[in-house]
Amino acid sequence: MPNQAESDRRRFIRNAGLGLVGAGVLSHGAWSSAQEAAEAEAPDGARIKEFRTLGRTGFKVSDISTGGPLEAGLLRALLDVGVNYIDTAESYGRGASEKVVGEVLKDRDRKSLFISSKLVVKETDTRDTILDRSRQCLERLGTEYLDCMMIHSAPTIAIVKHEGFHEAMRQLKTDGKVRYLGISNHGSQWEEQAETMEQVICGAAADGRFDVMLLVYNFIQQEQGRNALAACREHNIGTTLMKTNPVGGYMGLKQMIEQREKEGQEIPDQYRHILSKLKAVADQADDFIQKNDLNNPAEIRDAAIRFVLSNRDVHTVCVSFRNFDDVDTYVKLSGTALSAPEAKKLSAYRQGCGAIYCRHACGICEANCPRGVPVNTIMRYNHYFEAQGREKYAMAKYAALPTAKGNVCQDCAGHCESACPYGVPVQGLLALAHHRLTLV
Ligand code: SF4
Ligand code: SF4
C-alpha cells in the first residue's frame, strides 16, 4: 500500500496531466499542448501558467520556483506541475539537498531545468578550494554543468569581488561546467558588520560579472528590494526572490507570550516587562486585523505572493515548499495578478501591523547592540522555524551561532529598539526567539 507521501505524489502526477513535461518526455516547445491536456485531465490541479525571461541568461523560468532543503517526492511533484527553476546550496544539509536534486535529475530532461547552487565564500578561500568545492557540488548533483553558481549570502562587496572565486569560475566556464554567476543576500551576517542587502546586490550588479541575484522583497520590506531589483533591471540581470510572505511572523506570537506568562514564577521582572510591551504591540495589531477584515492569513499570503509577482522586475519567486498541500497553495498563484482590493488589504496590513515585523535583510539596529547580538540573523532563523516549519534546521543554525544570543536580551535596556526606524519591539521578539529556538 502506498504511504501518504507517495499517495500525495500520485495525486499530483495525475493532476499534472501525467507529468509528461516534468519527466522530460515532452520538450518545452510542446508545453502549451501538454498544459491544455493537463487541464482537460484534471481541472482542479494547480500548474505553472507563466514563464518569465531570467534576465540576460535568456532562460524562461517558471514564475514560481523552489529552493531550500528539498525532499525528492515533493521536488518531483513540483517539476511535474511545471516548476523549472531549482535553487540549492552546498550548505543545505551539508550537500544532502544537492544529492536530492541529483536523484530527481536522473530521469528528467536536464536542458529544461535551471539549476542554481551556492557556495559560502570566505576571504581565506582560494581558486583551488573553490574549484574543489564546485566540483563536489557537480558530483552531488550528478550533472555535467550547473546553470548558475552563486556566492551564498555574500556579506560585502569585497567578497563579491573575491579573486579566487572569479578565477575558479573562469576555469569552470571554460570547461563548460558553470554557465552563469550569481549572488544571494538576505541581509547582514553574524560574522561581521556587513553592508546592507541593497549595497551588496547593487554593487554586484554594477560589477558586471553576475547574471542572477537571489534577494529579499515583500510587501512589508519593500524599499531595499525594490531598489536592488531596479539595479538588476538596468543591467538585465535575472532575479529570484526569497522570503516573500512575511505574515508567518504574526502567527502564534500572542499564544507564545501568554504561554511564557503562564510560566510566571521563573520570569524575572525585566523580562516580564519586555513581554508585556511586546504583547501590547501584538494586541494593537490584532485589534487592527479584526477591525479591518484582515484576519484570513491564507488571503494575505496569496496577496503577498501576487504583490511580488506584480513587479515585472521579478522573474521568479522561490518558495520553500514544506508539503504537498503547499504545491497547490503556491503553484495556483502562478500567472495571477494582484487585485485592487488585495492591494488595499496589504497596504492596510503594512500600516497597522508593520510595527511587529522585524524586516528581513535589515539589520539597521545591530550597530547599537553593545553585546553584538546578530538581530537580523536570529530573526531569520526564527522565521525558518515559525513561518517555514524548518524547526530542526533553524535550531541547529541557532545553536551554531558563536555570538551572544537572544537570552542576553532579557535584562538589557533595549538599545536596538530605539534604533529601529519601524518601531519594532525587537527585544521581546529576540527573547521569545531564543526560547523557541532552544525549546527552553
Ligand atoms: S528590529 Fe528594526 S532595525 Fe532591527 S533588523 Fe528588525 S526591522 Fe531592522
Ligand atoms: S535587547 Fe540589548 S542585547 Fe538584545 S539585541 Fe537589543 S541591544 Fe542587543
Instruction: Based on the coordinates given, report the CATH architecture of the largest domain.
Output: Alpha-Beta Barrel
Structural class: alpha/beta
Provide the number of structural domains: 2
The whole-angstrom Rg is 22 Å
**CATH third-level topology of the largest domain:** TIM Barrel
Mind telling me the CATH superfamily name of the largest domain?
Answer: NADP-dependent oxidoreductase domain
| N-to-C CA distance | 40 Å
Mean pLDDT: 85
Number of helices: 18
Order of helices and strands: HHEEEHEHEHEHHEHEHEHHHEHHHHHH
- Order of strands side by side in the largest beta sheet? 3-4-5-6-7-8-9-10
Overall spatial form: globular
What oligomeric state do these chains adopt? single chain
Strand runs, count: 10
Strand content: 5-15%
